[in-house]
Amino acid sequence: MKLGAIEGGGTKFVCGIGSADGHLLDSISIPTTTPEQTLGHAMQYFTQFDIQAIGFGSFGPVETDPNKPRYGQILNTPKPHWSGFPMLSYLKTQLQMPIVIDTDVNMAALGETTWGAAVGLDSCLYMTVGTGIGAGAIMKGRIVHGFSHTEMGHLLIRKHSEDIFMGNCPFHRDCLEGLAAGPAIEARSGRKGVLVDREDKLWELEAYYLAQALVNIALVLAPKKVIMGGGVMKQMQLFPYIRQQVGHLMQDYIELPEDWIVPPGLGDFSALKGALALARTNL
Ligand code: ADP
Ligand code: ZN
Q1: Torsion-angle region of residue 60: left (phi > 0), alpha (psi -120 to 50) or beta?
Q2: By CB neighbour count within 10 A (0-12 exposed, 13-18 middle, 19+ buried), where does 133 fall?
Q3: Is the CB of 130 inside a 6 Å radius of any atom of ligand 1?
Q4: 184 lines ligand 1 (CB under 6 A)
Q5: CATH homologous superfamily for 117-262?
Q6: pTM summary value
Q7: What residue ranges of the chain are covered by domains with CATH 3.30.420.40?
Q8: Per CATH, is 2-104+267-281 categorized as 3.30.420.40?
Q9: What is the best residue among 200, 232, 236, 239 to mutate for testing ligand 1's pocket, by most ligand atoms within 8 Å of CB?
Q10: Residue 195: count of CB within 10 angstroms of its CB
Q11: For 78-121, how does the pLDDT look when each residue is reduced to its tens digit (9 = 90+)?
Q12: Nearest CA to ligand 1 atom 3
């Protein structure tokens, strides 16, 4: 049996074909343009294969409650053309099969608990630090949802006293994403993150912000594992800095699990494989 997977992001949509045990057999990357063009291309891809179901991990905000009329729609986004676009019903016009949708980071958390760094655990958090910051959580084996999907990338955190950067989140200015996502690093330093020296003090500041978010998340959800991915986390020096800052901020108030903060076990495929896992549960 073959399944389809979509990781839909603001710059590209990655579509893949895989087996129910998490092996990816094929994948393509489609640039994100208009919804019709992007999803049209995805449908063309999937019709070449004999697949039974699709799991779709989307950028947000997106309606993820199957009981709501707007299920599968992108909600209010600054991204041109996408606000209110009914992605799921559009895909279903050509693909007559079960398609289930959740956020890209929820998919990544699911992928990591099913086949990656959190196998055997009934809870974990996956955080991506890239063009934006997002996180998804699994608790008692289920993806955490409330009145909407979670939005932990916009946690409100303390600014460092020596940080003169104002923050660049269009909604909250100096929330976590506004202070610590890739574009904030670039605005603060005048260089792309990949070009900032590994020894630069900027990485300690970055770790200070990410650590605050993880402390807040530990206090609210207590996930047994925290997996950090995305382009910015390719700076591996961040891991020891973040662990150190989390310890410093938490002050032994609660004891954290050993090896609590780790890179993804599935590399760049956490979300795509999580989408396979979700497709499988929906058969
Ligand atoms: P996206 O979030 O768009 O899906 P990425 O996770 O690759 O994609 O994140 C892109 C952001 O991460 C950009 O702001 C980019 O400058 C930054 N980035 C990508 N690679 C690195 C790296 N090796 N070091 C630091 N920053 C990086
Ligand atoms: Zn924000």
Answers
A1: beta
A2: buried
A3: yes
A4: no
A5: ATPase, nucleotide binding domain (3.30.420.40)
A6: 0.97
A7: 2-104+267-281, 117-262
A8: yes
A9: 232
A10: 9
A11: 889 999 999 999 999 999 999 999 999 999 999 999 999 999 99
A12: 131
